[in-house]
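G., before I forget:
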Amino acid sequence: MRHALLLLLLLAAPLVAALGPRARRRDFRALSDAQMAAVATLPPAEWDAVDSGHLAHLLVPRVSDTAASTQVQAYLSSVFTKLGWHEDKDRFKQQTPLGEVEFTNLIYTFDVDAPRKLVLSAHFDSKWFAQGGFIGATDSSAPCATLIDVAEALTPLLKARKERIAAGTPLLSATHDEEDAAETTLQIIFFDGEEAFHEWTDTDSVYGSRHLAEKWDAEYLPPTHDFVRRRLAPRPTVLDTVDVLVLLDLLGAPRPSITSYYRETDWMFLQLAAADDKLRAAGLVEKGLKEQWFSKYFGFAGGGIDDDHRPFLHKGVPILHLITSPFPNVWHRMADNKDALDLGVLRRWNRIMRVWTAGYLGLAADDGAAGAGAGAGAGATADPTPAPRNASPRTTTDELVRP
Ligand SMILES: [Zn+2]
């Protein structure tokens, strides 16, 4: 009996190790109505035009390895440096159908020492066309701008929590261990080279994300890292520190239709849909109050739309892919410029992403004054077996094939 148990434990050990941090459960603390309203209306103010503020800097052609791309990188860098985030540039050269191109992924992390990360991402390059001039407002200027809005809104909350923990008053609620929540930080990645130069293939596409996933998969964590101390083998890499990679693409046009593609993250998708429902019910979004953006039908069992998440998905990182399908009708056309964007849609996306991200990280706007426990929302535990959903037919598409 003892031996059988021991054998069972020995057999199970590699499995437990293999599941590792990438498959860890976590609590999602949906914000209370008051917290939601506070987070949704935090500064900065809502955008006043589809081409002002950050978008004015992003609505330009920004093909990889061009002066315009360098300018956009400098702008993103200035925004995040001002916010006090850690900057990491992943710069490399790669052969493309157009010859050798230099790419630069930009990685911003609020707390670079945190052992775990919620990663929000979008690609900042625009597609190359021989005649030039393609902007790609939905592809992906608008998603990049939304990521900036989330960072700007939540930085003060992240800072306040960090200061509280540093001051030795981390735990402010019986139900909420702030120090535990603060173990996960927010990281924002702007991928370069998502677009194919000629025809979309496995090698002519997602240059930046392929490089970064490879790099992080080969970068082992130092012996002092929390994950190394928690388990013996296989030795964790930087990829293991990613709770989930959320990828935004082709957003900003009216009436998006977003589907959940991965069982592993379906519970997060449902929390996004719930955040949107609550924002609409509270009248905190102005656009398409009756429009359901998040599909009730579960998408593809193992397919989805090819994009920057692919290299991470193939290495076992949980993925949440927020892309509209069918694609916007301006997709890869010159018409994908500011006129394709809808201000109310952009504002709604900003609020959804603020509220969901705050919930995921256990942040609330009233934390500072009243303590984390004040008005704490009902915690929903990540359920590995999501509620039954109707599966739609299995299909695989890529960014070049209109689904
Ligand atoms: Zn594209």
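Residues 140 and 256 are 14 Å apart (CA to CA). The longest helix spans residues 137-166.

More on Monday.
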